[in-house]
UniProtKB/TrEMBL annotation, chains A, B, C:
The chain crosses the membrane at residues 12-31, 65-85, 92-113, 125-143, 150-169, 181-199, 220-236, 308-326, 347-370, 390-415. One of its GO terms (biological process) is ammonium homeostasis. Residues 435-458 are annotated as: Disordered. Residues 47-427 form the Ammonium transporter AmtB-like domain. This is Ammonium transporter AmtB-like domain-containing protein. Keywords: Ammonia transport, Cell membrane, Glycoprotein, Membrane, Transmembrane, Transmembrane helix, Transport. Belongs to the ammonium transporter (TC 2.A.49) family. Rh subfamily. It is a multi-pass membrane protein. It is found in: Cell membrane. One of its GO terms (cellular component) is plasma membrane. Pfam families: Ammonium_transp (PF00909). GO terms for molecular function: ammonium channel activity.
Length: 458, 458, 458
């Protein structure tokens, strides 16, 4: 077995080496800083709001997105307490690779100009969005794939996610400032499909006990995650909205949605579970759901109570999904959803898209005023009616689902081939090391490490 | 007893439901986004500094306040290590409700315009201030009230706190940019009065051992809290100051005050306790005190060493308060102060108000220069002499104390009624669940959970 | 022994008192706010970029630096898990003192104007840089010096660090925006020299076991540290760069360097150690190295792949340094490097300086365009050729090393005298209290506290 481990060790090491060299070469050949320094040639999906702003304004935004990707999503990924520090290391590896790769791929789509890609802070921001989708997907398969497989998953998903984003935002002119579709929905269903393809029945047992542990140990995570989501996500949602005003509405709508969805967790969980106060994990899930919900609709809502109602409803739906839908997903569809990304990203993302469509239909010049041209430039220019825009928004949903599931299936198939390459032993060893606590409960020291692992990503 | 628990579970769930529906209805009827998007009709107490600024500048401020409310105050509330994750969940519930409620109530006072309330980012900021006061009060009664009672406390305190703020800032034209009076002093004495009314002798024993535990386990909290306070509070203090320059002085004064109060903790604690280095809890208390001290005076101090001296003195007073005053408070006045909010918010708030009054007296056109009209507009306009302004500042103190104690007494009485409604058993059960560790020390697993609970709010 | 403890307690308390009074007096005599409020008279080394910007832009920067100093460096200092909360308290004490002291000392060098020092936010930022250097040095001697000694170390190092900075940036006109030399290199070698002078063979045993523990327990720290470094350091590096554009390049270069150095950790550690995934500590070290590397070169690199290559190489060098150089350092040169600051700050800082020199040589008007006058004003003005500038950059390195080692030797000698003053018993007692866990492994409760201590600085 040692040689197995050695093999797996070297496989990861070698793959990292190859990918990094690849990135360096690609960057050397193609990537340059955009002449005017930042923000660089304006990608359609970022609406170039910042172009006209002092970049001092842009900087904090930029950081918020990083906080998102590294911190909150990291927390999300590290959800299973037992993967504590291990999954942190891996999620940082994935982030480190995916950001470079996404800067290149997205540059190919958006910033390609006579043989060179001109990048700026913009590129980094949209690269972060891609990384977020990747981390969501990994949240669905966490604990059943090796680091090597995760890297390959990132390699493929970044490409497909960018393709989907390009089609939606650039070709179809869909508005999705908070990425309800291109990040949440795509990432969730991509990951679920991969999970389906990699389905291994004999992993069920461990899976279930992880579910059990979740409640006990990840409270710590969850509190941290929730707080950071509250603090930073509203900016995340509104990073790419057009204009200060529109933006402020997106921020406020998101906050109201958060508050309401949190309340509804406290309403529902006592009825679903035998607890007075919900576990923090549930609060975090509700928070995530309330945010994914506001992704597309955030900048379109013109009344605060709309945000309250939306958050209130999604805050009720998400726990119900965990209680009743996840088991079905697992038993009937043979899809294991390690971190429950379907209830926190997939479903709310879809609902957000539908809400966005509805709001697009209701958008009129007098309710929006001058904001109409900020939120729906094509409509304001008269090159497209509100109904067409709404149809586009609606059509984007099935398209995203299609691309996500196809891409997920494809990726899953590729990963399966890889798995064949390494013997199950090595596979387990690898997971073991990765999981850093082979057997739980058996020895206290391991538990000790677990507890440490827990506050890990704080 | 199970039916008791069920009853209490459903009572919390039902109350949340009612309050959320109430909020939604009130918002639907009254609340609209202010036409120009953000910042909305300018409330007197916010001096509309941001109006004239790019809102890119406003955004980070806004977040700092959230960091404050959710993180630092959350930490403060979660002070008793044993309430770890439990109190985190509750403080997030309180925040989620109080913010919505405060947006409405404050809107009624400040933003009400022909039948509608027009809200913007401003409203959210002042709503956060209210929430901060609520969390301070809860810090005083934590562990002796149920979540249901906390919600009712928030319901009442938000209203009274806004009333007090309205009288002080709008009617009397008092300057209190860092909220020494309207948040720190009001919140502390409101909470202490509630604690007095709810006094239960038989809780003393547990109370004391909590005090003992504090030293051991909340160091973790305290470090985190201290660091975040250092990072974010200076902005918090200066969120509502008039002008860039004035603002920068407020920030710097606060930092200097922090540094000095931290030093004086290291001076005093070795003399008061048998330790070389003070426990982090004491450092955090000193930090909080140093900040509450700078609340009102922050923007008025024109020399750095003034901030150093003020911080130095309050850093000496706060530990002395813990050592000698808290016991008196407890034994003589029968007031239990779970998180010691009197020494960290109440007393320093009063001192800050007195310092502010003194500085107002000393304010002259040539020391302040053009800043005079920024800090004391009324004085600069000549519609009020410096002495009148100082009298107003001074008069605001007893008024705040009066409103806080009356309001606290009233609230305490209401909560007592509520308590009667639920049987002591259910009460304890509720607390038990809320506290999430019924008996400590008895079983290691519980302690394990506690330790987890600890890094909870990080 | 008790009287020893009492003695040591009172010595720390008394020293704090004296230093604080000293600061107050010095501030009272010399320090005033700069008339125009912020940013104050422009120090050469800060290029006064912010002068022309709205200070809304400045505020978040200012905070980032604080996050750096208090959080990331705090984490760095608290690296040895067993010093958990204890070292947190001390590092906050050091910060509280060093910031005041640095504001005064730096003011004497830069802001002194007819008998008064006029300070603003600028002063606070450069004071933070000094504090960072002090914390790095303490990282090298942590666990072998008492709080009292640390305070004296800070007292001396702040002065010498400012002297070095003044010579480099003001007199020689060296560009070092990210402080590769003046913070990283100076701090590291200063601390290593102090460590050499204070070398105590009999401490080796404990030292080694700490090294062993590191892997187990500081993962928690390390994750947090890494994440915060990723989030905040790019701004830290670019706090003082001249211009939005230049600045954005510095930020992006740093991110790319981070991503690459993280990848190379995953490449190397499986070969050096028997692990598939590197320990988080190693990832943090690589992150730190990647950042120190970009300190000087960050704003000079004009192509992204340059940053990728630099990060990639330094990410390979740092782990090799830990594996092969640290033992040599310890056995041959008798230098104990508690937190391995040589591999994370010293060596990368030197490499960064060399890279910066190389880039300066390559700087031409057409590659830099208008940025030339921003990055190399003297060259752009024609008062200095690129070669002269490069020679200056190169000459700054040995000069910094000389000043650092001389200053470190001097400081070490002074601390030794101090040590003689207090008996070894008191010394140990002090360390014990400071370390807050006299015997490890013996009692579970202590370990419990340790574990708490761990998530301490999160």
């Amino acid at each position: 077995m040692p040689e197995h481990t050695a093999a797996s060790r070297l496989r990861l090491s070698g793959l990292c080496f190859l990918l990094q060299i690849l990135n360096i070469l690609l960057f050397a050949v193609f990537v340059r800083y955009s002449p005017e320094g930042s923000p660089g040639p304006c990608p359609p999906q970022l609406n170039c709001s910042r172009r006209n702003q002092d970049s001092g304004f842009q900087q904090p935004r930029f950081q918020d997105v990083h906080v998102q990707v590294l911190l909150s999503f990291g927390l999300l990924v590290a959800f299973l307490s037992r993967y504590g520090a291990g999954s942190a290391a891996i999620s940082i590896l994935i982030t480190a690779f995916a950001i470079q790769w996404a800067v290149f791929i997205q540059g190919m789509f958006y910033f390609f100009l006579n043989g060179k890609i001109y990048v700026g802070a913009q590129s980094m921001v949209s690269a972060d969005f891609c990384t977020a989708a990747v981390l969501i997907s990994i949240g669905a398969v966490l604990g059943r794939v090796s680091p090597v497989q995760m890297l390959l998953l990132a390699l493929l998903e970044v490409t497909l996610c960018t393709l989907n984003e390009y089609i939606l935002l650039s070709l179809m002119g869909v508005r999705d400032s908070g990425r309800s579709l291109t990040v949440h929905t795509f990432g969730a269903y991509f990951g679920l499909m991969v999970s389906r393809v990699l389905y291994q029945p004999h992993k069920d047992k461990r899976k279930r006990e992880e579910q059990r542990d979740k409640g006990h140990q990840t409270d710590v995570f969850a509190v941290v995650g929730t707080i950071y989501l509250w603090i930073f996500w509203p900016s995340f949602t509104s990073t790419t909205t057009v204009h200060h005003n529109a933006e402020n509405w997106a921020v406020l709508n998101t906050y109201f949605s958060l508050a309401a969805s949190t309340m509804s967790t406290f309403i529902l969980s006592p009825l679903l579970y035998e607890e007075t106060t919900p576990r923090m994990v549930q609060i975090q899930d509700a928070t995530l759901a309330g945010m994914a919900m506001m992704g597309m609709a955030g900048e379109m809502l013109v009344t605060p109570f709309g945000a309250l109602i939306a958050g209130f409803l999604v805050g009720l739906i998400s726990p119900l999904g965990f209680r009743f839908f996840t088991p079905v997903l697992h038993s009937r569809l043979k899809i294991q959803d390690t971190c429950g990304v379907h209830n926190t990203h997939g479903l709310p993302g879809i609902l957000g898209a539908l809400l966005g469509t509805l709001l697009t239909l209701l958008a009129t010049a007098d309710t929006y005023g001058y904001r109409l041209e900020l939120v729906f430039p094509l409509v304001a220019q008269g090159s497209r009616t509100v109904t067409d825009q709404a149809l586009m928004q609606l059509g984007a949903l099935p398209l995203t689902l299609l691309l996500a599931t196809l891409g997920g299936g494809l990726t899953g198939a590729v990963l399966k081939i890889k798995v064949l390459r390494c013997s199950p032993d090595a596979q387990n060893k690898e997971n073991a090391v990765f999981r850093e606590v082979p057997e739980e409960g058996s020895d206290p020291s391991a538990n000790g490490k677990e507890e440490l692992g827990i506050s890990t990503l704080v």
